[in-house]
Structures are given as structure tokens and as C-alpha cells.
């Protein structure tokens, strides 16, 4: 066996604390002054999640984009980019599932590479060349990072890959760069409790798929085997508990 396992530049995973505790600590540690939020529309409009985040941010809060559809399409990203460019954030916060997290990743790409039109995205997503090999364009790092507050089990908060739908060509593109993984993740089950049951359970089964796919991968290694096998055990125990009792916050955290 031989290979290389590369750690992504996530600095901290905060778990089991409320966002009031964990996010305040992250803001102080990072010295953020201007924070732009990408939030799920449901969380923003139908729950108190965004209100809680804004209360923590206080005068650090410079704006929110809460109209990101599923799969973070380019048309919505351009709207988010226009808002973010105007307020010049020094930190992004994603509040929601994979679309919000990927949306923040693509805002990082767009601000770093001055993307202003639909076609501007084309130079930066992974592409397959004539020889069949995947080419990953380099994406400039301007120092802007995100803190993810995930509310589903999509796992987008742990990857250096962001997905976005080209809503003219009707295909999904991948953007890959080390700096796109969130610098910190906050796992607060009281926020995840706000997710609708069907979405929570469906992303849980998608997490099972992610784990099995990694274990069966030809590039699997002892590190990924260990984390995925243990992850499957945790999912097997805790998903049933959250189905039986949605208010079981310990099960939801697990």
C-alpha cells in the first residue's frame, strides 16, 4: 500500500455548544469585523435561526443572502456576489444545508476571481480534457473564508469542493480549492432541529452513501476506512433515535 492523505485546512470543529457560545468565540479568535451570511430561505423566514446569528454578530453583520435554490445555480450566485461585493466582507457564514455552504464557497471563488457574469464561471470549474483527464484550474486565494453552521447531513462543510448548477447548460460543475473548506464548523443540534424531517432523514441516507462509496473506493486508505466505518455506526444508532424523537438533541448531534 502506498499513497498520500492530505488534510484539509479546517481549523476547528465546534460540537455540542450553542451558536451563542461557539460563534462568539470564533468571531473573537478570527478578529472578523464584517460578516456576510448565506442562509437557507426556510431558516431565514420561518425560524429564529438567522435572528440568533444576527444577535451574536451585532455590528459585525453587513448583510444576508437567503434566496439560494438547491444546487447553488449560477444565476443566484451572481445575485449573492453582487451583494457581497458591495459590503466587502472579511468573513462568510453559511447557515443551512449543502446549498448554503456551497453557495458560500462559490462566493469565495467569485470575489477572488472577480466573477461578474454567467460565462465568467467557466474558467474555474473542473473540466475533462480531450485525453479524458480531469483538469482543476487554480483559484486565487484572497484570504476570505467561511464558518459553516450546517443543518443537514450533506457533509459539504468538510470538503474543498463546491458544486454549482450551470442553469443555461443544465449541468452541475465542481470548483475545487483548499481554501474553500470552511475554516471552522459549528455543530449545534438546536439549529439542526429546525430542519424538516424529510430533508434531515434523506441527507442522513446520503451520508450512508458517502461512507459506503469511500470504503469501496479504489483509493480508500486506513484513515478513510476508520472514519467512514465509525460514521456508519453513529448513523445507524442515531438516525433511528431522531426519527423516534425529533427533540433528542444528543442523537441529532451524534
Notes on the protein architecture:
The chain has about 250 residues and is an alpha/beta fold. It folds into two domains: about 10-195, Rossmann fold (3-Layer(aba) Sandwich); about 195-254, no CATH class. About 45% of the residues lie in helices and about 20% in strands. The chain has nine helices and ten strands. It has helices at about 20-30, 40-45, 50-55, 75-85, 100-110, 190, 195-215, 220-245, 250-254; strands at about 10-15, 35-40, 60-65, 90-95, 125-130, 135, 145-150, 160-165, 170-175, 185. A six-stranded parallel sheet has the order 1-10-7-4-2-3, sandwiched between helices. Strands 5-6 form a two-stranded antiparallel sheet. A two-stranded antiparallel sheet has the order 8-9. Helix 1 (about 20-30) packs parallel to helix 3 (about 50-55) and helix 4 packs across helix 5. The protein is globular, with a radius of gyration of 18 Å. The two termini are about 30 Å apart. The model has no long low-confidence stretch (mean pLDDT about 95).
Strand-helix topology:
Blueprint (H helix, E strand, L loop, with lengths): L11 E4 L3 H12 L4 E5 L1 H6 L2 H9 L3 E5 L8 H14 L3 E6 L1 H15 L14 E2 L5 E2 L10 E5 L10 E6 L4 E6 L7 E4 L1 H4 L4 H20 L5 H23 L4 H5 L1
Parallel strand pairs: 1-10, 2-3, 2-4, 4-7, 7-10
Antiparallel strand pairs: 5-6, 8-9
CATH 2nd-level architecture of the largest domain? 3-Layer(aba) Sandwich
Looking at CATH, which topology of the largest domain would you report? Rossmann fold
Instruction: Average the pLDDT over all residues and give the rounded result.
Output: 96
Count, helices? 9
Q: Strand order, main sheet: write it out.
A: 1-10-7-4-2-3
Amino acid at each position: 500500500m502506498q499513497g498520500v492523505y492530505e488534510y484539509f485546512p479546517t481549523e476547528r470543529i465546534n460540537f455540542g455548544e450553542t451558536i451563542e457560545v461557539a460563534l462568539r468565540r470564533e468571531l473573537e479568535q478570527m478578529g472578523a469585523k464584517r460578516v456576510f451570511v448565506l442562509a437557507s430561505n426556510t431558516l431565514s423566514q420561518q425560524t429564529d435561526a438567522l435572528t440568533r446569528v444576527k444577535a451574536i454578530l451585532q455590528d459585525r453583520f453587513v448583510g444576508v443572502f437567503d434566496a439560494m435554490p438547491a444546487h447553488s445555480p449560477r444565476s443566484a450566485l451572481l445575485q449573492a456576489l453582487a451583494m457581497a461585493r458591495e459590503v466587502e466582507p472579511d468573513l462568510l457564514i453559511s447557515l443551512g444545508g449543502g446549498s448554503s455552504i456551497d453557495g458560500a464557497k462559490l462566493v469565495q471563488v467569485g470575489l477572488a476571481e472577480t466573477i461578474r457574469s454567467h460565462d465568467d464561471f467557466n474558467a474555474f470549474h473542473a473540466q475533462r480534457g480531450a485525453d479524458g483527464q480531469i483538469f482543476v484550474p487554480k483559484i486565487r486565494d484572497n484570504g476570505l473564508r467561511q464558518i459553516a453552521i450546517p443543518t443537514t447531513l450533506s457533509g459539504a462543510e468538510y470538503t474543498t469542493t463546491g458544486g454549482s448548477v450551470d442553469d443555461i447548460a443544465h449541468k452541475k460543475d465542481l470548483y475545487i480549492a483548499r481554501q474553500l473548506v470552511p475554516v471552522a464548523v459549528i455543530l449545534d443540534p438546536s439549529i439542526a432541529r429546525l430542519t424538516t424531517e424529510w430533508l434531515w432523514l434523506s441527507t442522513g441516507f446520503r451520508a450512508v452513501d458517502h461512507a459506503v462509496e469511500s470504503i469501496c473506493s479504489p483509493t480508500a486508505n486506513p484513515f478513510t476506512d476508520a472514519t467512514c466505518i465509525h460514521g456508519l455506526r453513529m448513523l445507524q444508532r442515531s438516525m433511528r433515535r431522531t426519527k423516534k424523537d425529533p427533540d433528542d438533541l444528543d442523537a441529532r448531534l451524534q
